[in-house]
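Journal club side-thread
Mid-discussion, someone asked how the predicted structure for our own chain would compare to the paper's figures. Pasting it here so we can look after the session.
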Amino acid sequence: LIKLKVLDPDHGQDRHNKMKALLDKYGDKGIYLVPATLRPETMYGQTNCFVLPEGDYGAFYIDATDEIFIMSERSARGLSCQLYSEEKNQYFTKEFGKIECLEKFKGDELLGLPLSAPNATYDKVYTLPLLTISMNK
């Protein structure tokens, strides 16, 4: 799982008002975009994060890490069925298969967000549009 931390969008774009409100309310927990890809340029040497402008995304609370992940509902449901800790028999969410959506976004509302990427040489990378993303994988 690659986690790209959402940074404060301090550039004043109205499209990021919902994200700013989410950061104000839950920012101490850590809010992360979690891209679903195995492409090496996303995993190593990160320069940006792609989102589908017309895609439906949500901010989902993850009990196991006490964090919020931005991803599709389908991805959140899949994650809720995966073990976080095998020794503790703990899933990513408190209840198997149950997800808690704190906010909904269109991909367009995520474009231009500054992110901190763990493997990047840059302090910030940004979300960019990619029209070929499939939200059904």
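Post-session note: The helical segments are 17-26, 40-43, 73-80.
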